[in-house]
Known about the structure:
By secondary structure, the chain is mainly alpha-helical. The longest helix has 22 residues. The radius of gyration is 16 Å and the shape is globular.
Amino acid sequence: MKILKQENWWVWLLLLIFSSGASTLVLGALLDVFDKNAWYTKWYYWVIALICFIFPAFIMLYIFLIQILCLTACKLKVPGKEIYLTPYTWILCLIIPIIGWILLLVMLLYLQIWTIVMLYRGAGEDFDIEK
Length: 131
């Protein structure tokens, strides 16, 4: 079954809803967006974060999910990559209270929804492998 075919966009929509966005990791793996030399592959970062308390590990996990979501959206050619691929935009949204936090949620929703829309439009068919 070709899971990235245009006809299977609803499967990704259901996965997105029922997994609370964690299906982006599977989609990112299928689109090959993971980097072997990135910060998230270094096990000692995760160990240090877990030793220092659980809170830094949750922050790292959330940053990891956002990064994979952005790279997946870029691979599917979601419009606006000049904005969502820049780390300064995300940092600025975190620093500015209320308005920035609302914009942070809007950007996350934008990326999640447009990823599904681009799968609906057939952008994932180029990356689908035959099984």
